[in-house]
Amino acid sequence: MSSKETNHYNRQNWETAEFPILCETCLGDNPYLRMTKEPYGKECKICARPFTIFRWKPGAGMRFKKTEICQTCAKMKNVCQTCLLDLEYGLPTQVRDAALGLANEIPESDVNREYYTQNMEQALENAGGTTMVGELGAVTNSNRGHDLLMKLARKQPYYKRNAPHICSFFVKGECKRGEECPYRHELPNDPNSALAKQNMVDRYHGNNDPVANKMLKRASKIPNMEPPADKSITSLYVGGVEDPFVTEQNLKDHFYQFGEIRVINILKKAKAAIVHFTERSAAEKAASASFNTLKINGRKLKLLWGRSQSQRVQGKNPNAPTFGLGKGAPGQPQSKGSYVLPPAPPGATGPPGKPLYPSQDPTRMGARTANPVKGAHQKAVET
Known about the structure:
Elements: H1 24-27, E1 35-43, E2 50-56, E3 65-66, H2 71-77, H3 93-100, H4 110-126, H5 134-139, H6 146-152, H7 168-172, H8 200-205, H9 210-220, E4 235-239, H10 248-255, E5 261-267, E6 272-277, H11 280-290, E7 295-296, E8 299-300, E9 302-305, H12 309-316, H13 376-382
Antiparallel strand pairs: 1-2, 2-3, 4-6, 4-9, 5-6, 7-8
């Protein structure tokens, strides 16, 4: 472990900063925040280099928080210096890397880690310090895995994470400070659970993080919007569309990013809309990206796949037949919901492989047949 007293060759790279890299949750909801700053106050828990410590109180009734890792390590993983969660989604790095298909490329040995850190610092400096570098910087330009992260991410800051820790004396029944105690007087849910044994280094590197494992199990149970087998369906049903809160232009602005839109039908009585795409691939992209996350102007909307024409007809009347020529004719294959013609009169016969009546022959188009069956109906009446 390095310290300020030792003559270490890396001493010139000790970090100085004017403001920490924090997420919105750790920063708190107090607009009048006061921080204390201590240059080289502690060693980074990842790279073991001294860095500037910041300490603050996020709000009333919350505990004091401080930075735990240096800014270089935070920039390499794009995480908060305090909670070590991803700055964009607020998720553990193990969940983010699993969704984006990233591997932990930061070495854990001392010598290799220092060499890697120096190279990344040079890359960050060349990029201006605001652009992500390495494998994470390359994957942020694609849409791979971002849909799953959007579903798992919190939509609002979770300030309960800043609450004071549980008072250990209260758990033992020995706390005598009462209301003056700065800690919570609550009993832990399960002190032997995996969530009670969290490690900051494992969270940073994404190794066996209990919080990440719990979220990945929840992600595996999230229902997916499977595309229908009928490839002709290129429309999406959007429920909860009500003017003036959600207009046709709002829907067009949201769905046009996935592909060209043929038409948008607004169903005012049903408070819904049907978005028709020109290509099936565009509809699949829109369904995958917007399922369970579609929100326009603060209103959460329901998204479903559209139905084919035959499904819409049977949806109105399940017993309604599907129209066709000759499907129910004698000798023709019958299908569910098709018209069944009445039986032929006694004695009436037709040529093999052809319709029984001239009106059933689509090639005749109402013309008289060349060889009509003479007297078939009259013979049947006489008999």
